[in-house]
Amino acid sequence: MRRSAIALALMAAVVVAGCGDKKDKPEAAQLKGAVAIGVLAPTSGTQSARGADLIDGAKLAAGELNAKGGVLGHKVELQPVDDACEPYIAYESAKTFVTDGGGAIGVIGGVCDEVAEREVSTVDATEKPFLVTSATADGIVSEKTPFTFQMNGTLYQQALSSVFWMNYEETERLAVVQDESAESKSIAKQAIGLLEGQPKLVSLQTVEPKGPKVKTIAKAAIAAKPDLVLWTGSAQGGGELVAALREAGFKGKFTATAASEAPEFLSAAGPAGEGATVMATGSPQNTPTAETFRAAFKAKFNREPGFDAQQAYDAVQVLAHAANRAKSTDSAKMVAKLTELDPKFSNALGVVRFAPDHTLLYDNRVILKVKDGKFTWDRSLRTDSLG
Amino acid sequence: MRSALGALLTATVLMVGSSTALAAGPPATPADDAATQAKTTAATVARAKEIAADLKTASDAAAAASAADPDNVDKRAAAAAALAKYATADADANAEQKSLEGVNGGVATEGSIDPKHPADVHNPAAGAVKSDNIEWVSNSRGLPNQVQKPTNANGNYAGATFMHYEGLGYDFMLGDGTGGLSIWSLKDPEKPLFVGGVNSNDLRQPADAHGPEDPLLTDPASNTRGFYEGENPTVDSRRKLAYLARDPRSWGAGHPNGRTGLYIIDVKDPWKPKVVTYHWVPAGHTATCINDCRYIWSVGPANNGSKVGSTPQDVAGVLHPEWSGVPAFVTDVRDINHPYTYAKPVDAGRNNNKTAYTHSVDVDQHGLAWTSGFGGVRGYYTSGKHLDPTTGVERQATATDPIPYAGGSVPSLETPAQYAQVSLEHNSYHRTQAASDTSSPTVTTASGRTLNKSDLQYVTQENVITCTRTDGGGPGRFVIANLAGSYTGKAWDPTLDAADPNKRYFIEKLDDYTPLGQPGDLPNGSCSAHWFTVQGDMVAIGFYAQGTRILDVSDPTDIKQSAYLRIPSATGQLATNASAVYWHNGYLYVADYTRGIDVLRYKDPIKGVVQPKVCWNACDDSQTPAKTTSVTTPVGNGPGGTVPATLSLALGTPAAFGAFTPGLAKEYTASTDATVISTAGDATLAVADPSTTANGHLVNGAFVLPQPLQGLGTVKTYTGPVSNDKPVITFKQAIGNTDALRTGTYSKTLTFTLSTSNP
């Protein structure tokens, strides 16, 4: 299949070369009619609600673009393809774009980590820009996927952000508590790896089903006299831990990673959760600067947008901006613009720009603080605005 | 490359004694703390792995004890603490390993210059005004000052630095200015060969959120200035990265519209450098690597940049209207893909509690970071545990939270009302003595005054006007100041007040220098002091139109001009406009704002003791060649044999005292040996304690043996070449009958140095 894709690409090049000698003629030929953007989304299966959210976010962006003249003067159309959040289906879904990109100038999507991993290798081989909207695993993109970029911060970036946050908090003594999940342990291990003694790690524990009670864990953490306890596990576990810590007399700071931004955290923590902070992922619900998007989405679809909707909206806008900026839908030219710092390339949290490893240069981590039993906006953790 | 000659070789060995019988491997000590280590080496990696393995054993045991009694809080806490120690040590070992893996020797084969770069131009130097003891050798323009005018003879360089490419075996020079970054091969150090760079058009970004984006520099009729200007460029020579500070005045912008930032450029292949990232930073006139280039301090410029009209320039509000300049902002560049700048600056309040323009950061041979700018010079620890003189509390110094060391305002010729508004402390150099320098730690002046060498701070004060003008106290000068009395945090005293001349803290000025009235002066030419480097007692400094000046600072109270060279304007010849002069490998390299790079040779002997490193900016290893003599080229094709330059030092089994017996007065003896091979004309083997904690004493955690370790200093001197000599190095440690000894191991990591002044 890969071989035939190359052959087709070569044939297309011959046709284009025969069109004439003016540089803009190939563009005109390519852009006859609408500009298509592929959308890989789970419209079936257990994640179908997220898929619908993602497609609606993309529709909103396409509608706004078309109201302003589209991309390079052409109407934007979406090509949704169901990947069901199942890797074996995702592979076949991704092959939709193998032949000449399926007519699309770029592709967005990738809700689930395993699915995104499967889709990336195939879509990237088409040499069409692919913006992975929601997956958060490390290693999905790299310099070896030259046409693919990740629109969500990775687990590594979550660990990196936690260390930056602890520096903001001038933390000197840190206790880390993790649960048994691979994600929790990965974030904890990567954060510890980035500390370099600032702050000093004084206690490390794992909450296990057959292990000590959470009260014992809380008291053991307090014995190390930390001024901040970092929880990297589930929302329920985080709530239980902060409740146990406060009950045992802990007066220091409590911060949890993104998984704790859920009602289970608040209900398990109860009043003890007041003042706790969560390093969350920016979303329409928790980010005040996303209010314009949120209002527009509600007006169009009569419901609240989810995280995937915002990611899809941003991804379509970024692809469109790259094409407009490049004055071309040529993949290489669009990709070059994706890696260039451009203040107009922005979303609710600021500039969208990709690092040489194709992850976000400045990720979408925000700090929420529990106030009156709710998560409330505290600040963005990005520093690009410092410049 | 002959740079091996004259190199200084160091090795470290752990010196241990114990109040109990020695174990197979010593336990972790404060010296093993990653935060105290200024550099990653194979030894630090091995040591980190050894410590992690030991701690894993302890952690497993504690975990087993806790598992057997799962709700016992004390056992659980002990297990959690043990696991934290192991996890930290394991992370440290992994980080050290990763850091070491990032170290590279650059490309191993020579490349070819990118045809997009214009052909080099070599500016002549006819009629150079100079002393007899200095000569002009060559010139290279590199990239032109304006990318849109490739035939311009003008090469504009605000600064330069050097990088050794282990894969090729020779050095490269990196210079930057309005044309961008230029790179030269120094395979022939007399004739730098321009091999590549990143021109200012390739550096440009649509980055200016406060005004129009950086313009394309493609119109030959355009006079728009490009990059501005990366004074004092800093490099990570071990990982082959260059960092350029972007000033807001880049690409034709001005205060306060322009954006500041940091370019990170991969220069593994000097023929094909690659921009990794452009990162916004609130500061950007100069930049300096801190702590093995894991952090960057970006500083300046003079405006506070806090407002564009009535709109705050920086959304985060980290720049303050009441500042008179931008202090140092710290960027974590351990992950160059995701650099992170901290909102809280360092070196704030530098002018008697008023935050002012920090212009330069220059690290000394011992790792102290010295800032210069309006209000004087100030030194900081950025690693290790030290007493904070402002609080009286011992704490860990870090790049983001350094500990004050010394410094203060430097007397200038401004009026008290003008102070810190006209004359700028531009850059500085803290004099230190390396372990290999066993000369007296003091210097006696002609008038009989005795000064500590380590109290001496060399400073340039900048005021860019011609020599004969007097406004603002006249043109900038080179100054020697005395740090004595400033080590107790006086420059950070909260009662100081920049606005009140009676509430400013000044260190003593010992002498100053200006070219006016000196041989070779150009009275009506631009005259201010600029960037300089130091070798022995000789300072090489750029003085704009006055050109290069070599100053003899043997007597800090009487600075003498030893040499000068300036190139006049002539038909087809551009005049000197010297920004910086660098001692490097037997030559002087001049970064010139007009001529590009000039290579000079100073022919007289270097006075004083040449230190292993010619430190400026980050005091990077590649700034080190201590060669002081002229380089000769082999002549003739007849038969013969060549002796490769060799300076080799290998250490035997580490010395160990065995067990110290508490309450018993006794002198303990321990020995080790070394193997020395040298082809140099002379050589000296010395051993020193490099630590700043209880220097010269063995330590056991926070406990210090009261009596010093004996045997430090010069071990043996050689007056000629030597092969496989095996000197025995003996140490003695006296223990008094009332000396309190703490259970555990007393130890120190010592540095052995084999050096030569006659390679």
Automatic annotation (TrEMBL), chain A:
Pfam families: Peripla_BP_6. SUPFAM superfamilies: Periplasmic binding protein-like I. This is Branched-chain amino acid ABC transporter substrate-binding protein. Residues 35-361 form the Leucine-binding protein domain. Belongs to the leucine-binding protein family. Transmembrane segments: none annotated. The keyword Signal applies. The keyword Heme does not apply. Keywords: Amino-acid transport, Signal, Transport. InterPro entries: BCAA_transport (IPR051010), Leu-bd (IPR028081), Leu_Ile_Val-bd (IPR000709), Peripla_BP_I (IPR028082). GO terms for biological process: amino acid transport.
Automatic annotation (TrEMBL), chain B:
Keywords: Signal. Residues 1-23 form the signal peptide. Residues 202-233 are annotated as: Disordered. This is LVIVD repeat-containing protein. It comes from Solirubrobacter phytolaccae. The lineage of its organism: Bacteria, Bacillati, Actinomycetota, Thermoleophilia, Solirubrobacterales.
